[in-house]
Write a structure and sequence with these properties.
By secondary structure, the protein is α/β, with parallel strands linked by helices. It folds into 2 domains: 1-30; 35-104, no CATH class. The chain contains 1 helix and 7 strands. Residues 1-22 have low confidence and may be disordered. Keywords: Membrane, Transmembrane, Transmembrane helix. The chain crosses the membrane at residues 6-24.
Length: 106
């Protein structure tokens, strides 16, 4: 019976979008909707500097001046065949210190 309860919870979370998180697979999502600046971010293997293909990731914009409601929730997804994670659309130019993009483990 306990396993059935967990199955119901998992199905519910999938239906409502994982509790508010966005999860994309096999597409290059756009993160954010306000602004004229756009960058495409991706993951590289630290030792070889090669793209990390089909790798789960976690992306959050941390820049305080960005007020787009989309940035209030993290973006989860899987990199594409070129290691790209997402396009970020923002009101201001973003630097590497303005967002966190990491490989999702576990």
């Amino acid at each position: 019976m306990n396993a059935f309860k967990w199955l119901v919870v998992v199905i519910f979370l999938v239906i409502i979008g994982g509790g508010g998180y966005w999860y994309y697979k096999n597409t290059l999502p756009t993160y954010g909707s306000e602004g004229a600046f756009e960058i495409t971010v991706g993951l590289l293997e630290p030792k070889t500097n090669q793209p990390m293909v089909d790798t789960p990731f976690y992306l959050v914009v941390t820049k305080d001046t960005e007020t787009d409601p989309a940035f209030k929730k993290p973006l989860f997804g899987v990199t594409d065949s070129a290691g790209r994670a997402a396009k970020i659309v923002s009101k201001t130019q973003l630097n590497a210190n303005d967002y966190v993009l990491v490989q999702k483990v576990g």
